[in-house]
Each structure stands twice: as structure tokens, then as C-alpha cells.
Automatic annotation (TrEMBL):
It is a peripheral membrane protein. This is LITAF domain-containing protein. The chain crosses the membrane at residues 122-144. Its main location: membrane. SMART domains: LITAF (SM00714). The lineage of its organism: Eukaryota, Sar, Alveolata, Ciliophora, Postciliodesmatophora. Signal peptide: none annotated. It is found in: Membrane.
Length: 167
């Protein structure tokens, strides 16, 4: 006996067969005629091009009684021309472990800083902590560059622009 029925599916034991043509049901979705919109009250009907205006309305382009004729040419005035000179704004840097963009007050230019490392407070603090617990490895803080202080200098005039301390 063939394990599959005529449709190529295994037999469904205990399940009723699906009703024929069950989805979508007939007449779904319901068909409605398009809505008919009424003109809004309070607005006069607009005249068709090539037809005379409705009675009681003046033709377009003519003045209404009691009002001056409309100005056909708008009167635009040219604003006065202003020239604004924009000077480069100094960059307020956040000094970190890497070179950054900063403004040198001596050179009056924005520069990318030159970094120099120094043995700072963090290195000495860790040296004394290691010296207290294990004198053998007390020189280890001098090998870790992440604990060094970093000075940011101007590459043109070599003035100090800022410092970064990891502490």
C-alpha cells in the first residue's frame, strides 16, 4: 500500500478533511459603491475655465465694488546685503591618551597635538602599593604605559596645551 495518498501528503488520521473552497468565503471582501461626496457648505462653487462666473460673483481680475483693484505685480523689496566674516573658532579639546585636535593660543591655529609620556602620580601610587605587598614586582608599574601621564604639546611652538592623567 502506498504510504501517501493521491495529493502527495501522508494520510491524516483523526482529522476531518478541510471543507472545499472554504477560504475566502464567497462575496468577500464585500463590494460597496464608491462614496458620493456633497460640496461643502459655505464655499461658492468654482467657475469652470471658459464659462462665465455664476450670477452674483464678479469676474476674476476685476475689482469688487467698494474695494481697490488688486495689485497684479507684487512689490518685493530686496533686503540690504550684509557681508559676515567668520573666523575659525577655537576647538575646546578633551585631552585623552591619544593625540587630539586643539587650539594653540600662542600660534593662533588649530593643531593636532604631539603627545609626550611622563611618570606621574598613578605610576608612583602603584609602585608603593606593589612595594608594600610584594617588593619583587614593585617595578611593574613602570612597565605599564596606560598608567603614565600624557602631555599634549603644540607641534609648532612646543608649548603645553593640556595634560591627561589616568588617575
Amino acid at each position: 500500500m502506498d504510504p501517501y495518498n493521491q495529493q502527495g501528503y501522508p494520510p491524516q488520521h483523526g482529522y476531518p478533511p478541510p471543507p472545499p473552497n472554504a477560504y475566502p468565503p464567497e462575496g468577500y471582501p464585500p463590494q460597496y459603491p464608491p462614496p458620493q461626496y456633497q460640496p461643502q457648505p459655505g464655499y461658492p462653487p468654482q467657475p469652470q475655465p471658459g464659462y462665465p462666473p455664476p450670477p452674483g460673483y464678479a469676474p476674476q481680475g476685476y475689482a469688487q465694488p467698494g474695494y481697490p483693484p488688486p495689485n497684479m505685480q507684487p512689490n518685493y523689496q530686496q533686503p540690504p546685503t550684509s557681508i559676515i566674516a567668520i573666523a575659525p573658532a577655537p576647538v575646546r579639546p578633551v585631552f585623552g591618551p591619544n593625540s587630539t585636535l586643539a587650539f594653540c593660543d600662542h600660534c593662533k591655529v588649530n593643531v593636532s597635538t604631539h603627545t609626550v609620556t611622563y611618570v606621574g602620580c598613578m605610576v608612583w601610587l602603584m609602585f608603593f602599593i606593589f612595594l608594600f605587598f610584594s617588593p619583587i614586582i614593585s617595578c611593574l608599574p613602570f612597565c605599564i604605559r596606560g598608567w603614565y601621564d600624557i602631555g599634549h604639546n603644540c607641534p609648532k611652538c612646543s608649548r603645553r596645551l593640556g595634560m591627561f592623567t589616568p588617575l
